DNA sequence: CTTTTTATGTTATTTTTTCTAACACTCATT
DNA sequence: AATGAGTGTTAGAAAAAATAACATAAAAAG
């Protein structure tokens, strides 16, 4: 219950997050832009990430290493709140440009998940290591 | 056992630490200069604090709010490693300017501890709040 | 009761880090 | 061939943090 508070507490700078996740700043910002994370901001507009943010980024990374694209990741991560975009009910309106139906997404996910054959998926150590902080 | 790794992992910037502890940067740097903490450094020489560092700072703060001075805090915290100064055995040599004998320190501590009468000692909330991260 | 020392505030200047925005490129899809 | 997705790279501006110096109130020492 009180867990939420400390898991959502803004603690980490960009530099630390890139070290923890081995993502580039570019990637992190892009994922934010896509609504996958919503890090807090300092007074001067610098990003401040929480444990949840880092957890989420590691999850995103692992999914994308499997070849899943942003749309797919979005779908997988829905339910876990970056509340500003996934506002209210499970599906607000599918609106917007991408214009993918649920069926489309499902097909896409299945296709992409089935091709988890190749790809070396490294740096598991990190995900394992950091996740010990919470949970 | 593996706890040490994550408790000593360099994670927090100065800005975050000052928020967590409600110490000023000046104070944090001074305490470092006095050998009470040994935060890691980034490539560009910026301080990176671990959970242990923050814990330690909160402890220092609480002691000083009771009127204990740096020498006293040093004594109280000895045993908990800022390894570079407290190298090897419990007492390397007392050398240097301060030149305090153990008896002196004991006297000093007793005197200062006995005057914990007044002083409002606020912000206990924070110490309680953060310590839930580990332990 | 002066003099010193402690712990901290303040200010100035320089480095480091981060930000946004733009443009480029690769690869997959159309 | 054209398009779009994800990321790299670069440039310039802004924020955060570093060091260092000087200032000072309160406590300690003499």
Automatic annotation (TrEMBL), chains A, B:
Keyword tRNA processing among UniProt keywords: no
Keywords (A to Z) from UniProt: DNA-binding, Repressor, Transcription, Transcription regulation
SMART domains in the cross-refs: HTH_MERR (SM00422)
Renumbered residue ranges of the record's region Disordered: 79-103
CDD domains, per database record: HTH_GlnR-like
InterPro entries: DNA-bd_dom_put_sf, MerR-type_HTH_dom, MerR_fam
HTH merR-type domain span: 11-79
GO MF annotations in UniProt: DNA binding; DNA-binding transcription factor activity
PROSITE patterns: HTH_MERR_2
Cleaved signal peptide residues: none
Protein name (database record): MerR family transcriptional regulator
Lineage: Bacteria, Bacillati, Bacillota, Bacilli, Bacillales
